[in-house]
Amino acid sequence: MQCDKCGEDAVMHAAYSGLHLCESHFRRSVESRVRRRIRDDALISDTATGENPETWLIGLSGGKDSVVLTHLLHETFAADPRIELVALTIHEGIEGYRDASLDACLELTDDLDIDHEVVSYADEYDVEMDSVAEDDPLGMAPCAYCGVFRRDALSRYAEEYGADKLLTGHNLDDEAQTAMMNLLSGDVRQVAKHFDASLGSFNHREVDDDPFVPRAKPLRDIPEKEVALYAHLAALPVHMAECPHSSEAYRGEIQEHLYELEDGHPGTRHSIMSGYEELARLAAEAYRGDENAPRGECDRCGAPTNNEVCRKCELVDAVGGELP
Ligand code: SF4
Ligand code: ZN
Description:
Binding site for Zn(2+) 2: 298, 301, 310, 313
CATH topology: Rossmann fold
Shape: globular
Strand order of the largest sheet: 5-4-3-6-7
Strand content: 5-15%
CATH class: Alpha Beta
Largest sheet: 5 strands, parallel
Number of helices: 12
Bound molecules: iron/sulfur cluster, zinc ion
Structural class: alpha/beta
Low-confidence stretches: 202-209
Domain 2-thiouridine synthetase TtuA-like N-terminal LIM: 2-27
Number of domains: 1
Pfam families: ATP_bind_3, TtuA_LIM_N
InterPro entries: CTU1-like_ATP-bd (IPR056369), Ncs6/Tuc1/Ctu1 (IPR000541), Rossmann-like_a/b/a_fold (IPR014729), TilS/TtcA_N (IPR011063), tRNA_thiolation_TtcA_Ctu1 (IPR035107), TtuA-like_LIM_N (IPR054306)
Keywords: ATP-binding, Metal-binding, Nucleotide-binding, Transferase, Zinc
Distance between the termini: 58 Å
């Protein structure tokens, strides 16, 4: 097959667009979709200047998604005085797995000359995921603890660091899976959160006292396979191994269904996301000022919650950890 743009040998075929692309046109296409997303989500505030730059904190795990994100942000903004990039890696305490991926992070941030910070569950909660997975006091999948700790560690660090945005490497498949999981759970409040937390809705927010650093997902239009192909073609240092505690069975099931749907009906993931975003916007509007929205603060850590203690503090307690 030949590239539809130049006639060179194609390295990929995107069924959803019908395009065959050669290496160079494929790479350009990924780069321009990511830059368009950054523009459309209005990631760069009007107030960012060379004298008053914005700090963007990148969640860097060493896997393909966050490595591609870091690489593309560096390509786009290294020479832009309005933006300062910093990478943050969370060390969960998973023997063998996280140390190797930390090496990939160090190699990348060294290469790109980006500041790199590491935060560990051991320092933050006095726990390691290996023992959490073994003890499993609440009989949940390890990822159910780990996801709560990671979200908390990322946003707390972003806040402490004074970051203006928190950027993560979620790709189109991740986002479509989460959308389906939220829809199937029937939890519309969770759908609304998608708008508030991650839609790049910074400019039309009505909640100025939002306690969270705004989040953004610049890869959210790029299918997972294209992120992997990009990382491979650009020879980026990616850590490929899977976490030994990886256990998101339900997400895996949804992923299988989505593969099948996408095979039979190319473009399904894109249309799920455009419908979901509109739904999230409408739901967020409908819930504004709703008295059932979390308004209280966690007694221990101050995080917003309707209960006495937030979910994170509950889990830290359950696994015998401690907040600093
Ligand atoms: Fe944590 Fe699960 Fe990811 Fe492993 S796969 S790092 S346990 S969230
Ligand atoms: Zn708490």
